[in-house]
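fold description:
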Amino acid sequence: MPFSNMMRASSERTHSRIVLALDLQDNDRETLTKKCSNILETVAEYICALKINRQLVLALGLPTVSQIVKEAHKQSLPTIMDAKLNDVGHTNSFMMEAYVGAGFDAVIASPITGWEGGMDAVFEIARREDRGVLLLVYMSNPGAEQFYAMITGDKQRPIFESFTQLAIDWKADGIVVGATRPEIIRRARFLAGSAMEIYSPGVGTQGGDGERALSNGANYLIVGRTIYGAESPREAARHLYESLK
């Protein structure tokens, strides 16, 4: 099943548009693994997918992370590897193969390396293995404007607009635009059209407003610390879930 279809089916099943970012940190690997498993299990009914970042892979190793991916799949939740792939082709190929082997359904990549000898390798493997690719268009941190809003190119438009066009041209499965920038979400939605799905991180702890992000065109909210950093992750997930109905 194409990744976009997988996401829509999961969202319809759970009536949720929340993607849990399971980006925890702990010096003890066993404790960290248990925390991840427990949080995933307790919030599963309120989310539609799981996203894992590189710090968890570095802390636990890919084989252990693969087990967490399997746990998500048992809950019928799609999984996204936030790899932000942005290297030359042979390196991208190696990493993409590794994440596919670990069971991830999609990866996040940066279009900054261009197509030939860069992103072409990522998309080739994704299409062969029926996996999704989400392109990073605008990050959620305060300093993102310094780069992503930079005016450049023959058409003299912001870089994020060029990245949005690349997502269309390359037939990406979605784009990532920070929830802290609702005006950028709105512009990306206008440029990308209704078919391109927008994933928005930065809700809550980073200052992004989930309802505002959705009303400006986001399809899914990527939420991490607001949920897993709460005293009760389950209650935090439930509260966010109910606030978005």
Summary: The mean pLDDT is 95.
